[in-house]
Amino acid sequence: MNRTFVMGDIHGAYRALRQCLEIADFDYQYDHLICLGDVCDGWPETKESIDELLRIKKLTYIQGNHDYWTLQWMISGTADPVWLTQGGESTVKSYHDGIPDQHKRLLEEALPYFRIEDKLFVHAGIDPLQDIEKQDLSIFLWDRNLARIAIDSHNKKITDKLTRFDEVYIGHTPIPSKKPVYSAGVWLMDTGAGWSGVLSMMEIHAKEIFTSDPVGELYPGVPGRKPK
To answer: Quick check: pTM over 0.85?
Structure first.
């Protein structure tokens, strides 16, 4: 039986990506993977990470803010100086042999959000008080308000759902946990793979979680990024 997985921010950590897929015994032909964005920037293997994702027949890719930055560079050839300091430099280096058309196409065709049944998948978050169809892309890529409220609800043990969706899955805001955290209808999936944390992937129906080793241990000697 085919399965559906959701994965948090990869940030160039190809070794962590492979580890999660292997631990889950992921079927590249039949299983469905929903990536919450930010495959780019941070660890040194953005190109290899995208190559791996492109092997997956049933891939749904959601745009992250770092993907947006990377795409602007791929299109224009000009690197945003802020982007370079936020992990973009490692992405540029990973494409020293050129940018494959498929890589650019993946980022161009990335979705602002994705829905299955009453489950919503988005990179950064949404405004829970506004219809999603009326919201700006900048909210989906950058806003941390929903994540902050979910974290606060978790700390205060508040269980009332924060949105009209049954479940919302978000990345973007790293949490100091070795596995995703559920709070008030929101799944916080970014477990810090872009820095010294782990990469997490979860089967959305069984809620079975698969995590990598701490990414810094997978890239010994490679300087990590500092959280934004």
So the answer is: yes
